[in-house]
Design brief:
Largest sheet: 6 strands, mixed
Distance between the termini: 39 Å
CATH superfamily of the largest domain: C2 domain
CATH architecture of the largest domain: Sandwich
CATH topology of the largest domain: Immunoglobulin-like
Strand content: 25-35%
Number of strands: 15
Structural class: alpha/beta
């Protein structure tokens, strides 16, 4: 159903065109109209949980601040928005004050289940790069299925876990990085570059000056839609592990520098965690690529890199070795510990309800069981969840 997928969308400016008004009537099939036409729904209708009719074709628009994470903007909490987006269509759009056509962080909106997160794709900033990585899944057809925990009758995501996915990334070498005054766009790699070549960059040969020789370093970042993630140079990671790691720089060698550094990328939800590889030189980004962590194939891989405009760079790549494993995960923060306690509490509640139901069925099936010394009350139940929380003192 449409509420279970995310759609790649963009927010573009409106161009005023001088057109002659003509009265043309087009016969449109009812089935096609039902597929492509979405009626707008007000915010009041969207948050009205008593109204359950007509939502298979309705959609509501929310501003970027309403689906963000900034407490000053009073956003809608995950526990409120996730059940609504599991059954109703919702889209978000960039704030009207973004005059530079930049974008807000799309990760909170995706985590809350918003299906359409509009972005200004003419600006190749971090949100646009994350968007490109996510929607390359499934062949890049513009739709990605949301996690199963966001599609259930009582959605709650991310869920706590005692283990995490671990991708061991061994950064071996970098190849053919352009000099600081050089530009080598590969305009034939993707078809859309031929439509707006001015936005993709023009070829500029190197000047040959030693002052423009690169001294690159590779930076590894993790951006998770939901769940714990960190980047560490050791296992198990320390409690101060961050979400990024930078290799040592290669002084005066952007042609074929060797790094041979190993980092561990841990993520509770690898299929919704974006790995961002950056090549930094002189304090600025020289090249990058974004990939879904859980979609990377193991083995030796050559990862092509892009320029700051998002255009593939001719013959420029980073050579890595990838392996996957599973590691134990202990809550590192109070919020993670609270989430784990809530998950255990919910599991105990479900088990308690199951035992109660079995007791009722046992009494109904064998009403004389008490005469033979079998008391339904003698069946032990799981301990109450409240003492568990009290013992952990969170």
């Amino acid at each position: 159903m449409p509420s279970q997928v995310r759609q790649a969308t963009s927010s573009v400016g409106r161009h005023s065109l001088n057109r002659q008004t003509t009265s043309v009537k087009v016969q449109l099939a009812t089935e096609l109209h039902a597929l492509i036409a979405l009626h707008g729904r007000t915010k009041g209708e969207f948050f009205d949980t008593d109204n359950q009719s007509g939502w298979e074709r309705g959609i509501t628009s929310l501003g970027e601040k309403r689906v963000g994470d900034d407490p000053e903007d009073h956003p809608v909490e995950d526990m409120v928005l996730q059940p609504l987006t599991a059954a109703r269509l919702c889209r978000s759009f960039p704030d009207a004050m973004r005059f530079m056509s930049d974008n807000g962080d799309p990760l909170p909106a995706w985590r809350k289940g918003v299906q359409h997160v509009a972005l200004n794709l003419q600006c190749n900033d971090l949100p646009t790069q994350l968007h490109a990585a996510l929607f390359r899944l499934g062949g890049g057809h513009g739709y990605v299925l949301k996690p199963s925990a966001l599609r259930g009758p009582q959605p709650k995501w991310p869920v706590g876990s005692t283990s995490v996915h671990c991708t061991t990334l061994r950064v071996l070498s970098l190849h053919h990085l352009p000099t600081r005054d050089e530009c080598r766009p590969l305009l034939t790699a993707e078809s859309h570059h031929s439509y707006e070549p001015a936005l993709s960059g023009a070829a500029i040969p190197p000047s040959g000056s030693r002052a423009n020789v690169s001294s690159p370093a590779v930076r590894i970042e993790l951006h998770a839609i939901g769940g714990h993630c960190c980047v560490s140079s050791t296992l198990p990671p320390t409690r101060h592990a961050s979400r990024h790691h930078t290799t040592r720089p290669a002084d005066g060698n952007g042609f074929n520098p060797a790094f041979d550094e190993r980092v561990y990328c841990l993520a509770a939800e690898p299929r919704t965690t974006v790995l961002r590889l950056l090549v930094e030189d002189a304090g600025s980004v020289a090249a990058y690529e974004t990939l879904i962590l859980g979609a990377m194939r193991p083995g030796y891989r050559s990862i092509p890199l892009r320029s700051r405009l998002g255009t593939p760079i001719h013959k420029c790549s980073v050579f890595v070795h990838i392996s996957h494993s599973v590691e134990d995960h202990l809550p590192a923060t109070v919020s993670e510990l609270q989430d784990l306690v809530e998950q255990l509490r919910a599991e105990l509640l479900v088990k308690g309800q199951t035992v109660s139901q079995l007791r009722v069925e046992l009494r109904a099936a064998n009403p004389c069981a008490s005469n033979h010394g079998v008391q339904p009350s003698s069946i032990r139940q799981p301990a109450a969840a409240q003492p568990v929380a009290a013992q952990l003192r969170v």
